[in-house]
Amino acid sequence: MNLLDAKIPVTVITGFLGAGKTTFINQLIKKYPDKRFAIIENEFGEINIDQELVIDAAEGIFELSNGCICCTLNQDLIELLHRLEDPKYNFNHILIETTGIAEPDGIASVFLNLEGRSKYFLDGTVCLIDAVHALKTLNENQTARKQVSFADLILINKTDAADQNEEKYLLSELRKYNHGARTANVAFADFGSIDILDIGAYDPDRVGFTLGSAINYRQKPSHFMLKESDIEAHSFVLDQALDPHKFEHWASVVLHLYNAQIYRIKGILWLEGEERKVIFQSVRNSTKIDIGEKWHSSENKATRLVCIVKNVERKSLEKGLKQCVYLPKIQSNNILSRK
User: I need a labelling partner for 4 at 20 to 30 A (CA). Which of 59, 179, 261, 297 fits?
Assistant: First the structure.
């Protein structure tokens, strides 16, 4: 990788066993011939790569004749990313497949922690779903539920083998976990013309659009949860400006108190004294804050937040957020104030 080049985008690929991630990655390699991927896998060999493509291998990093490389995550991710910065590895996009490595929020938090200090940036998380077995898998497996709740793009795979009525029901159930993610039905992991490599999930210029889609799902703040699930998505709208210091304190306390129970927060903040929108995002206890565009005179100012959590009561979050509302100091009318 040439360190003088622009930052390298990272796509995290997740999905439960049998969802079609291997086929999907091979489709990516095929459909983006101009891309030189670095593919990070838990165990080399999970991707069916023709051994004739392997032209060199060193320290678990395999160079392929099509310009891609494939490496094993047998050490710390940050250490591996540093090794990939060697100029001899020439690539312009990273794919990370999470099966057997970690759940997607663990991978994402690494890149938020590296924000501003790395040649890499997180573009988004793609989750593949097996349309035939998804409902059973989601009901029985917390990891699968977490993968769905964290995704920015959900590809419902194997639709060629699924009943159409079941597909519609599955989509409505997925919306209960993640009502802000884009979804698409695919067969054989063939995503057609969908742009997989430009999700922009952490791009402050795009957060407003995805956030609006999430909160307007039922046209009011609410929460969504599958039956017997412990993972919920809470959405909040506050139509009063927030005190920036109070919100900073609230976010710090919440992320520390609940730690791994809060998977992700994203939102647009209306802060007192700030003419522009403030974009707030968190993954685990890592946070990212960006300054967005100015509030338009025609739009209603409001803070909009979506919190994806596990076993965290909505009332607790809502109470803390309401305490962040800015309260102007009212001048006292006693004798001391008149002096």
Answer: 59
